[in-house]
Amino acid sequence: MDIKDIKIAHLKAIMKNEGLSGNKFAKKLKTKTGEPLKPSNLSNYLTGKKEVLETLASQIIDAFPDRHYRRAYILGLDEYMTDADYANASWAKSLDTLKEGQRESVIMKNALFSLAELSGFKIEQNVPCPQDGDIEHFVRNFHAGITVSRDGKQVSLSLTDLSALEKKLCDWLEFELLHMMK
Asked: Rounded to two decimals, what is the model's pTM?
């Protein structure tokens, strides 16, 4: 797959992530004059007639500031759609360097996010990826700003809420697995 195809695939992935059709997605993007992007222009990007460049990347980032979409992803330079995706991948590679409690915390967060997604929930963490690669900063703060949403409803969870939920999940999983081992 060449870079042009990667950019198209990433653009489609962002549209899917937003749950928007081409027309609705185009309306969210603003041109330099403040007008919505024409659906025909978006179609040209999606079919490869126009190349996804910095301008479109900026429009996407500006249209969805809470999503923390990464310019490098939009431009096909890496596979991490959001700052959180990049942080998760970066720190997953460094799990061995973390203290045991921190390691467990990162693993639990990933498990919780995955289970929630499988159940139709969306969990977003709004902790931007630190530029200096400070793993401990991320681990200390990844619970800050977590929002759970589904069907137009959402709730922000505190560290206490998340810890209680994680404990319940671990207890349930242990119970079920031990029951299966009998």
From this structure: 0.55
- For residue range 53-94, list pLDDT tens digits in order: 999 999 999 999 988 899 999 999 989 999 888 877 776 666
Distance of CA 181 to the CA centre of its chain: 36
**How many angstroms separate the CA atoms of 76 and 2, rounded?**
9
List strands edge to edge, sheet with 153-157: 122-125, 146-150, 153-157
3-74 under CATH 1.10.260, yes or no:
yes
Q: Which two tokens stand for residue 145?
A: 């700003």
Q: Where are the domains of the chain?
A: 3-74, 83-180
Residue 148 in 3-state DSSP?
A: strand
Sign of torsion over alpha carbons 41, 47, 53, 56: positive
Question: Would you list the DSSP string of 59-110?
Answer: HHHHH-GGGTB-HHHHTTS-S--BHHHHHHHHHHHTGGGS-HHHHHHHHHHH
